[in-house]
Fold this sequence. Notes:
This protein has 314 residues and is of the alpha/beta class.
Amino acid sequence: MHDPLVTILLAATDDSRFWREQLLSISKQENVRVKLVISIDSGRESVIEEARSLAYEIFEADLVKVVQGPQKGFVANFLSMTVDNPVNSFVAFSDQDDVWSPDHLEKSIRRLENAAGSEGAIQDRKPLATGGRTRVVDSELNLIGLSPLYRRPPDFRNALVQCIGGGNTIVMNPAAHQLIQTAGALEVISHDWWVYLLVTGAGGKYIYSHVPTILYRQHNANLVGGKNGLKAKLIRLYWLMAGRFRNFNSANLTALEQCKDLLTEENRQLVQEFQACRNRNIFLRTGQGIKLKLYRQTPMEQAGLLTAFLLKKL
């Protein structure tokens, strides 16, 4: 049997400092075959040529496609690649500045195949995606710590109010890719959250891994930072009180409404009930919010969720 094929969608800006390390780590993935799509979110042709030259140095030319991104931010960049590329393999998202362990893709695919059962993830029609923890490192790859460990099971009732796996960890089967492609390049808050929402909302399965296989590099040019530490928690508290999380949820719910036919009947109803209760008075809002059984992953986060319902910040 052939090793499974994985199409890697790598979104990049014009900051090329860490490209080589990441491309080399991708080239060293074990027991898989890879194709690489690199979307450069820059209008500078010289940057696109730099990416193409480096990729051809490391990979065979027929395994690489370098394109210009839509230049509307990293979320649009990832979703444009997901929508524009054919559904014929597993798909993995990649940031431009991380480093993958050699077994990152192999372990991810094994989780998907185990979730699919005896038929295997490629043949299974159920959308399946996996993501999980990362090792957070500095610009020189010195360990800072680990991303949060989540223990409650992934589910649409969690996905409606929380994203649990970074986009740089996500690998999905063709059915999940087809699902995202059918929904289209909608305006959502983040591509990782959208995968979690849509896969679970459509009756598929999201598998969360406790074992990190990615070095997630933190540096001053990161578009999205880590989620651990007091500073990150204070930032999230500020976002809550400023209404930013409410705006996030509004955007996600609007996107879900635009592709509601892809959701299960139960989850369509849940979206409608969540949308309705967000705008009711404090007593109805809080009572109905509790009945919906939405949840976040930790007791502190769950307390924050209840507070958000009380203050109309969700």
